[in-house]
Design brief:
It contains four helices and seven strands, in the order E-E-E-E-H-E-H-E-E-H-H. The protein is α+β, with helices and mostly antiparallel strands. It has a single domain, classed as Nucleoside Triphosphate Pyrophosphohydrolase, CATH 3.90.79. The chain has a four-stranded mixed beta sheet with strand order 4-1-6-5. Strands 3-2-7 form a three-stranded antiparallel beta sheet. Strand 2 and strand 3 form a beta hairpin.
Length: 151
């Protein structure tokens, strides 16, 4: 019998001074909003993955944002059965476990460039609104992370 694993990754909150967070709309699920996130490459440290994913998915770099904090604990969530069945690499993955990072913008007028592979649009959003509009299976993880990271 195969083992079920959690994919290790990072999740990124980009916040401006008024408390709004940068949210991105998924191309494959119009109306589904989320934060930038992604898996760790082999041998990659979480902070390095956070900067890489931020650049790849939003175009933002150290010129646009500063690291504010890294949540000490990892937060896991399970995928629904239909997503588990579509995992790749021959693994039976149960979900994801993520290291969360908070970034602050250096200029409130910063504009990301959605990658147009995963994300097609973006907007500033109240964190509570984002939690209410993220896909159901991620909602608890977002709420847990936001309760620990955001005031």
């Amino acid at each position: 019998m195969g083992t079920q694993q959690f994919r290790a990754g990072v999740a990124l909150i980009v916040r401006r001074d008024n408390g709004d967070v940068m949210a991105f709309e998924r191309l494959d699920t119009p109306g589904a909003w989320q934060l930038p996130q992604g898996g760790l490459d082999t041998g990659e440290e979480p902070l390095d993955a956070a900067w890489r994913e931020l650049r790849e998915e939003t175009g933002l770099t150290i010129e646009h944002v500063r690291l504010v904090l890294e949540l000490p604990e990892w937060i896991a969530y399970e995928w629904p059965p239909d997503i588990r069945e579509r995992t790749h690499e021959g693994h039976k993955r149960r979900g994801q476990i993520q290291k969360w990072f908070l970034f602050g913008v250096l200029d409130d007028d910063v504009e990301p460039r959605p990658d147009m592979h995963e994300f097609g649009a973006w907007r500033w959003m109240d964190p509570h609104h984002l939690v209410a509009h993220v896909v159901d299976f991620r909602r608890d993880a977002y709420a847990r992370a936001f309760s620990r990271i955001l005031p």
